[in-house]
Design a protein that fits this description.
The structure is a single chain. The chain is an alpha+beta fold. Helices cover about 40% and strands about 25% of the residues. It contains 3 helices and 8 strands. The two termini are about 40 Å apart.
Length: about 190
């Protein structure tokens, strides 16, 4: 069975609108909760530096498992934590001190350990091993003022365009039916 151009365009339109609405939902939830969206106990984070390359590339999106005892981690685990200036950092634990009360961390691409030890109360969660390359750039743009505005405006423009095309198509069909009717009456 051959798919018509109309069917394919309807499917494509539906997919585009669904993706835009999902992105809008993620951005909205992110803004409302202070960029702390939890999905089934995981937080989605954008990676903004190359300190964990090649394993985690700049611009990737990672999943971080939150909750639980933040003193449970061991050497080799990759954790996300809040640094002193409230910036989120994802690095590997290279040493556990004071029975997990603090960790010495280091980025895989860095030459030495981080300057300050990480206190267990600053740990957000553990890297879950889930990475999507380059999507972090999109999320970063979407959470900016310009990106959020675009995600609000673009679906409206697409809906107006679709409405215009639907009205145009309907008018052509009506015109065609009227022409057929006038030919039948002659």
């Amino acid at each position: 069975m051959k798919m018509t151009l109309k069917t394919m365009s309807n499917i494509l339109y539906t997919v585009v609108i669904a993706v835009l609405l999902c992105a809008l939902l993620v951005v909205g939830l992110s803004k409302a909760s202070g960029n702390e969206v939890n999905v089934f106990g995981y937080q989605i984070k954008s990676v903004l530096s190359g300190s964990m390359e090649p394993g985690i590339q700049t611009g990737s999106v990672i999943a971080v498992k939150t909750g639980g005892d933040m003193q449970r981690f061991s050497e080799g685990d990759v954790i996300t934590y809040r640094a002193e200036d409230n910036i989120l950092i994802t690095h590997r634990i290279i040493e556990v001190e004071n029975n997990g009360q603090q960790y010495i961390t280091q980025g895989d691409a860095n030459n030495g350990p981080d300057v300050s030890p990480v206190l267990s109360e600053n740990v957000v969660g553990q890297y879950a091993g889930f990475t999507i390359p380059y999507v972090g750039y999109v999320f970063q743009f979407a959470t900016s003022s310009e990106g959020a505005a675009l995600l609000m405006i673009l679906p409206g423009i697409l809906l107006l365009g679709y409405a215009f095309l639907t009205i145009r198509r309907t008018l052509k069909q009506v015109k065609h039916l009227l022409q057929e009717k006038t030919m039948d009456t002659k």
